[in-house]
Amino acid sequence: MADVFIGFTSHDETLARFVLKHLIASNIGVFLAPAHVQPGYQWSEKILNTLSGAKWAIFLASRAACASPWIQQDLGMSIGGANKLIPVVWDMSPTELPAWTAPYPAINLAGATIEQARAQLVSIADRNQTDKKVGHLLLGLLMAGLVIGQPS
Questions:
Q1: 62 vs 27: which has the higher pLDDT
Q2: Please, what is the angle between helix 114-148 and helix 13-25, to 10°?
Q3: Residue 66: how many CB atoms within 10 A of its CB?
Q4: Which of 2-11, 21-30, 139-148 is modeled with the greatest confidence?
Q5: Which has the higher per-residue pLDDT, 43 or 24?
Q6: What mean pLDDT, rounded, does the chain reach?
Q7: CA dihedral 68, 48, 10, 128 (to 10 degrees)
Q8: Contact, 31 vs 83, CB < 8 A?
């Protein structure tokens, strides 16, 4: 199951694949629809199933993405599913994002070099890894509590 869902439009696929590459390099499970939906599967079913299991959603928030009803739908499902949402902007100001993104601080890549963009992605990967470690620790403690609490 993917840890991170990448929401984007086909207009922004080059950036989406850049994000995919660098998150995978950081050992993060990532879902990018064109790379992970096999022929014969329904896009919407696969996206919904992935969003329900992912902990993070990265919204590649270009002007094109903000105008896309499909992206709005995906991200609405993401927020409804309690994913952590990270809007990423580069061709507009974070203040131009749709109002529903206001509770989620954006990463602004406008004018960033490739190395600066990569560093931002590593930062996202680090936060995701920390969440996974905390989750594994909590699960381990829960399991230990269940084992210790078992009657002999």
A1: 62
A2: 50
A3: 20
A4: 2-11
A5: 24
A6: 77
A7: 110
A8: no
CATH number at residue 72: 3.40.50.10140
pLDDT band for position 63 (50/70/90)?
Answer: very high
Cα separation, 59 vs 7, whole angstroms:
5
- Check residues 152 and 125 and name the one with the higher pLDDT: 125
Residue 106 exposed, middle or buried by CB count within 10 Å (0-12, 13-18, 19+) = buried
Distance between CA atoms of 72 and 83, rounded to whole angstroms? 15
65-70, long-range: CB within 8 Å, 24+ apart, which pairs?
65/7, 65/8, 65/9, 65/11, 65/12, 66/92, 66/96, 66/97, 66/98, 68/9, 70/9
Q: How many domains does the chain have?
A: 1
Residue 68 confidence (pLDDT): 92
- For residue 81, give its domain range: 4-148
